[in-house]
């Protein structure tokens, strides 16, 4: 998948010739709600024979608008890009979210980031907002599209157990350590991608440096599956309040310490902090 970084204001030379169908949103986690949206966008792109693109933002708007520091992510950008590609996205626009971009009125976003980028169909969820003070919504987008050369498709709310599936909900499930519930929201277990810290790993006990600011479950003992690209091993992740210190994974086999990346999938919480520190 091609990744195109966009910074505001856009350079005119960026206007792509090829037309595309664009899914827009932050998409942290690429959960089942996001997946419905991307699958619908893919159906349209296939029908119309256009490229399927996604547009996301970096960092999260709250880091800029609410000056939130140390925000944690379900999918830091590289993991999000990989997951979007897996669902068929061929191109990803990553707009650097800064104060200048945040101040853009909704109408200007439509002109500069939808029409100028040659987007023929914008696919968003029912609660999508955009533009200065988040004043633009799906109704506004649809109204504007009537006089402009693009269509809008709005995806209905995807729920689980009557609640909207959202990144916020998923984060609280993971924070609480209820990792066995994650597949109901995400379609798979929660996954953290990291590098093996070779200096601090010994045999079957490995230390991992996550790639990006991943949200981690609360401290405790977790059953995990560790994949090194070739093999899947079962393991136990002893997660302490700070991953840099005592946290370690004991795997039931030897992992090649020189593999570039490993994936850790959290399957079950075995016990909470009291047990690991005792
Ligand atoms: C051009 C633009 C300007 C934005 N300005 C603001 C803003 O001033 N305040 C705000 O809370 N969010 C702002 N946002 C963020 C959106 O409200 C929204 O979070 C973002 O488009 C991602 O959509 P999603 O949360 O539905 O994924 C802006 C988004 C865009 C595209
Ligand atoms: N449960 C859902 N059902 C349908 N669309 C959704 C759902 N969750 C998010 N979306 C849509 O996906 C896009 C990205 O949303 P985002 O704000 O990143 O997700 P979340 O609400 O999970 O934080 C938006 O267009 C949003 O409306």
UniProtKB/TrEMBL annotation:
<dbReference type="Pfam" id="PF06574">
    <property type="entry name" value="FAD_syn"/>
</dbReference>
<keyword id="KW-0274">FAD</keyword>
<dbReference type="InterPro" id="IPR014729">
    <property type="entry name" value="Rossmann-like_a/b/a_fold"/>
</dbReference>
<keyword id="KW-0288">FMN</keyword>
<feature type="domain" description="FAD synthetase">
    <location>
        <begin position="17"/>
        <end position="168"/>
    </location>
</feature>
<keyword id="KW-0547">Nucleotide-binding</keyword>
<keyword id="KW-0418">Kinase</keyword>
<protein>
    <recommendedName>
        <fullName>Riboflavin biosynthesis protein</fullName>
        <ecNumber>2.7.1.26</ecNumber>
        <ecNumber>2.7.7.2</ecNumber>
    </recommendedName>
</protein>
<dbReference type="InterPro" id="IPR002606">
    <property type="entry name" value="Riboflavin_kinase_bac"/>
</dbReference>
<dbReference type="InterPro" id="IPR015864">
    <property type="entry name" value="FAD_synthase"/>
</dbReference>
<keyword id="KW-0808">Transferase</keyword>
<dbReference type="InterPro" id="IPR023468">
    <property type="entry name" value="Riboflavin_kinase"/>
</dbReference>
<comment type="pathway">
    <text>Cofactor biosynthesis; FMN biosynthesis; FMN from riboflavin (ATP route): step 1/1.</text>
</comment>
<comment type="similarity">
    <text>Belongs to the ribF family.</text>
</comment>
<keyword id="KW-0067">ATP-binding</keyword>
<dbReference type="GO" id="GO:0016779">
    <property type="term" value="F:nucleotidyltransferase activity"/>
</dbReference>
<keyword id="KW-0548">Nucleotidyltransferase</keyword>
<dbReference type="InterPro" id="IPR004821">
    <property type="entry name" value="Cyt_trans-like"/>
</dbReference>
<keyword id="KW-0285">Flavoprotein</keyword>
<comment type="pathway">
    <text>Cofactor biosynthesis; FAD biosynthesis; FAD from FMN: step 1/1.</text>
</comment>
């Amino acid at each position: 998948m091609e990744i195109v970084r966009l910074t505001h204001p856009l350079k005119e030379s960026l206007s792509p010739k090829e037309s595309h169908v664009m899914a827009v949103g932050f998409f942290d986690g690429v959960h089942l709600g996001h997946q419905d949206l991307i699958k619908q966008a893919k159906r349209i792109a296939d029908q119309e024979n256009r490229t399927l693109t996604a547009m996301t933002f970096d960092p999260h708007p709250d880091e800029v608008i609410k000056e939130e520091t140390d925000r944690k992510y379900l999918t830091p950008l590289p993991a999000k890009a990989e997951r979007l590609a897996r669902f068929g996205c061929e191109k990803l626009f990553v707009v650097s979210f800064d104060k200048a971009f945040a101040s853009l009125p909704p109408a200007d976003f439509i002109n500069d980031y939808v029409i100028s980028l040659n987007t023929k169909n914008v696919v968003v969820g029912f609660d999508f907002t955009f533009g200065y003070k988040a004043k633009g919504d799906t109704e506004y987008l649809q109204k504007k599209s009537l006089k402009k050369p693009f269509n809008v498709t709005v995806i209905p709310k995807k729920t689980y157990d009557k609640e909207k599936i959202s990144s916020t909900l998923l984060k609280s499930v993971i924070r609480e350590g209820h990792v066995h519930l994650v597949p109901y929201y995400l379609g798979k277990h929660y996954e953290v991608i990291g590098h093996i810290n070779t200096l601090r790993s010994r045999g079957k006990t490995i230390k991992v440096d996550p790639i990006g600011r991943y949200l981690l479950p609360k401290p405790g003992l977790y059953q995990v599956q560790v994949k090194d690209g070739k093999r899947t091993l079962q393991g136990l992740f002893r997660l302490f309040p700070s991953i840099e210190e005592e946290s370690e994974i004991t795997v039931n086999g030897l992992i090649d310490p020189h593999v570039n990346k490993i994936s850790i999938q959290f399957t079950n919480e075995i016990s909470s902090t009291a047990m690991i520190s005792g």
